[in-house]
Amino acid sequence: MATSNVSKSSKLRIGAVHYLNTKPLIRGLTEFAPQADIRMNLPSRLADTLAARRVDVALIPTVELLNRTDYAIVSDACIGCQGPVLSVKLFSRTPVEQIRTLALDEGSRTSIALVQILLAEQYGVRPMLEPLPIGASIAETRTDAVLLIGDRAIHSPPGKFHAVWDLGDRWARWTGLPFVFAVWAAYRNTPLGDIATALSAARDRGLKELNTIAEEEAASRGLTQPQCLDYLAKNLNFILGPRERQGLELFESLCRKWELLTAPPENLSVEKVS
């Protein structure tokens, strides 16, 4: 496939995530967008980086998209799930209905909103929240429950828990819809060329090379190659389609119901920023 004409006149700054779940999205991105400057960071920090215009397009938590009327989705590539996601989990030391305090992984923002929605809707629980710093272990907090995301959520931490929730599974069973954790977004009216084509092409390359990605990444993640492949192929969804949109719309309405957003309502639409 030919390379895209993305930002040939100047380097396009693309913010991506260094978690395992983003690897299929950026496979071959340097080929499809050869002039791009790809910068890796945590999802929550990428959101801040995009807001400050230190990157032109970024893979950001969906809750950040919903909280901004000046952002647009720029690709049909995403990170989501249609059932168990494996890498977003709630570990509760008490029965769920008795959760009063909750520590939240600072690497996440969408999952923070999602866990609050699930607890409130399903158990009427609105716990006190506190941060769990990046690099801190679950043993370093005394809260009733802890939300973990990313690679460290895949490996269950030591300790006994009354409940362990896979948030993707809880959402899918409850709503019957997929969940979308992150999307490629940019400020509206940002000149990005055909970045949508490049991002879709990179995703498509990644989906074809999941076996290779699993071979390359498994050992460093503490996984076997089959475990890594299963996670990428069975737990994750990388295509933003009509049902994913429905899930996003429901998530937005629930975020507004529980006052987790500050921006006014905005219709979601995958559009090419020009």
Q: Counting H and I runs of at least 4 residues, what is the number of helices?
A: 10
Strands, count? 11
Low-confidence regions: 1-9, 269-274
Given the helix and strand composition, which structural class is it? alpha/beta
Any idea what the CATH superfamily of the largest domain is called?
Periplasmic binding protein-like II
Strand content: 15-25%
The major pleated sheet works out as: 6 strands, mixed
**Termini, distance in Å?**
23 Å
Q: What is the radius of gyration computed over CA atoms, rounded to a whole number of angstroms? A: 18 Å
Assign an overall shape.
globular
Q: From the 3D structure, determine the CATH topology of the largest domain.
A: D-Maltodextrin-Binding Protein, domain 2
Which features characterize this protein?
alpha/beta; D-Maltodextrin-Binding Protein, domain 2
Question: Summary?
Answer:
The chain has 274 residues and is α/β, with parallel strands linked by helices. It folds into 2 domains: 13-81 and 178-257, 3-Layer(aba) Sandwich (D-Maltodextrin-Binding Protein, domain 2), CATH 3.40.190.10; 88-175, 3-Layer(aba) Sandwich (D-Maltodextrin-Binding Protein, domain 2), CATH 3.40.190.10. It is built from 10 helices and 11 strands.
Give a structural overview.
The structure is a single chain. It contains 10 helices and 11 strands. The protein is an alpha/beta fold. It has a 6-stranded mixed beta sheet with strand order 2-1-3-10-4-11. A 5-stranded mixed beta sheet has the order 7-6-8-5-9. Helix 8 (210-217) packs across helix 9. The chain is globular, with a radius of gyration of 18 Å. It starts with 12 loop residues before the first strand and ends in a 17-residue tail after the last helix. Residues 1-9 and 269-274 have low confidence and may be disordered.
